[in-house]
Structures are given as structure tokens and as C-alpha cells.
Amino acid sequence: MITSRKLLLIFIIQLAVVNATPEPTIDFNRDIAQLISKRCLECHNQRDVKGNVNLTAAKEFRIGTENGKLALKLINEGKMAPESKGVSSKLPDEEIKLFTDWVLDGSPWPKGRVLDLYETTTDVRAGRDWWSLQPIKRPDPTNPRMNPIDSFIRQKLKDKSLTPAPQANRRTLVRRAYFDLIGLPPSPQETEQFLSDQSPNAWPKLINKLLASPRYGERWARYWLDLVRFAETDGYERDKIKKNIWRYRDWVIEALNNDMPYTQFVTEQLAGD
Predict the structure, then answer these.
(1) pTM
(2) Is 143 a member of any domain?
């Protein structure tokens, strides 16, 4: 016969089981590999073995850190990572706990797993997971009925609870197109020509016309020339005239007007430097 005391005991045990939160398991690749790559490999990789400690593989890790215990001691003392420019580089508490739990669990390391300095992006270097090193793929627009660019912009505005500006009228549109593409306002005749064209392809016709204008290259070349610090003199100290530098300026303008592929654009400049 089950007494009330036994029933109470069973209830307490069941309640404890329900409320118990299992400790999250530590995944080497997800947790430890990223931590070591980010915090330690700058000074303890296969090429740069400071203190004769290489942390890229299991055997070297266990020998150099006494199965992790020496590393754990230095980390808890705030000596690893070392100070940088007089500022402590002590690891965050959650990372110290993660590393401690892993070491106390015997520092399990997958067989054959070798860490790489560049497998993870850090504050000081880009790793192979850096966005610009990922394979190029075409994202799906959130609204397939819209222009893809408009669709992405509309989604970002929605994410930030912003309301898009109202659609511009045709007179405003033609001015925006001229200023954006060639940096000059349309003449009254050009404005009226666009306003009077009620055909469905009036807008694409206008854009193609402006892209074909020599003024297009002259406007957009400014950004590249500013980037490479183009100037026709040597600066304020000597102010010597660069007599033939205009040829490079004209080449950049011509490249943009001819729609030169970017790879060729960069390659020819590197070859001519």
C-alpha cells in the first residue's frame, strides 16, 4: 500500500526530473576549435610556436599544455592571452568556463583534427569563413513581383520599421536619373522629351541613353580616381606637375564608358603600375 509520504516523495522526485536542465554538451568543432583558433593560434600555430607550444593538434596540445592544465592555469591567472599594449586580454568568463569544462572532461580532441590559424575570423584577421571568401550565390528576392533590388531594400526598411518614401513623379525621376548617372541636370527639352514619352519602355530608354553618354564615365570615374588618390601634381610640399598623368585619368573614363569588365580593369592597372 502506497502511503501519502511515499506519494509525496514520488512527486518530489518527478518534479526534480522535470525541472532539471541538462548541461549542454561541448562540441569540439563548434566550441573549442573556434575558441582556440580565435584566442590562441595567433602565437601558437605551426609556423609561430611561441613558448614551444603548438596548439593546432591534439598531441602537441597535450604535450605543450600538460593536457590543458597549464593553459587553464595561465588563463585563470589572466596571463593568456597576454596583455596587449598594457591592456588585459583576459578571456570572457563564459569562454573560461567553456575551456575549463572541456579540460576537466579530459580535453577530448577528434582524431586527425588539425586547427588552422585562418579557419575562423577574429578581430584582427579574416578567416576562411569571412563573408567575401564565401561562394557567390544569388539570393532570392523576398517579393518576386518587384525589382530584386527594390525587394531587398523594402525588406530592410521593414526590418527597421521604416516606411519607404512615396513613389516619385516622372519629372522628379528624370532629374534623379540625370544627376545619378551623369552628374548633370536635364535640360528643359530633355525633361519634356521624357514626360511626353508615354510608352512602357520610356524609363529603360532614358537609362540606356544616359549609360551611353560620355558624361557617365566622367562622373563615375571620379570615385575610382579618388580611391587611388589621383592628382595632377605631387602635392603641397613640392607641387611638381605630373605632365602625363591625364592619360591615366582618360583611360579610367574610357574603361567605364566601354563597360570594361572589372577583372580586366584591375588587371591592366596592376600590370601597368
Answers:
(1) 0.54
(2) no
Q: Does residue 164 lie in a domain region?
A: no
Question: Per residue, what are the HEC states of the chain?
Answer: CCCHHHHHHHHHHHHHHHHCCCCCCCCHHHHHHHHHHHHCCCCECCCCEHHHCCCCCHHHHHHHHCCCHHHHHHHHCCCCCCCECCECCCCCHHHHHHHHHHHHCCCCCCCCCCCCCCCCCCCCCCCCCCHHHCCCCCCCCCCCCCCHHHHHHHHHHHHCCCCCCCCCCHHHHHHHHHHHHHCCCCCHHHHHHHHHCCCCCHHHHHHHHHHCCHHHHHHHHHHHHHHCCCCCECCCCCCCECCCCHHHHHHHHHHHHCCCCHHHHHHHHHHHC
Of 171, 214, 208, 216, which is closest to residue 193 (Cα–Cα)? 171
* Model confidence pLDDT, tens digit, residues 162-199: 999 898 999 999 999 999 999 999 999 999 999 999 99
Asked which of 22-31, 47-56, 152-161, 176-185 is least confident by mean pLDDT, the reply is: 22-31
Of residues 178 and 24, more confidence is placed in 178
Contact status, residue 185 vs residue 226, Cβ threshold 8 Å: no
Per-residue pLDDT at 18 exceeds 50: no
- Residue 188, class by beta-carbon neighbours within 10 Å (0-12 exposed, 13-18 middle, 19+ buried)? exposed
**Statement to judge: residues 32 and 126 lie in one domain:** yes
Over 60: is that where the pLDDT of 244 sits? yes
Residue 234: which of 226, 243, 225 has the closest Cα?
243
- In the listed set 131, 155, 173, which residue is the last one of a domain according to the structure? 131
Of the three residues 111, 131, 151, the one that is the final residue of a domain is: 131
Least confident of 20-34, 35-49, 186-200: 20-34
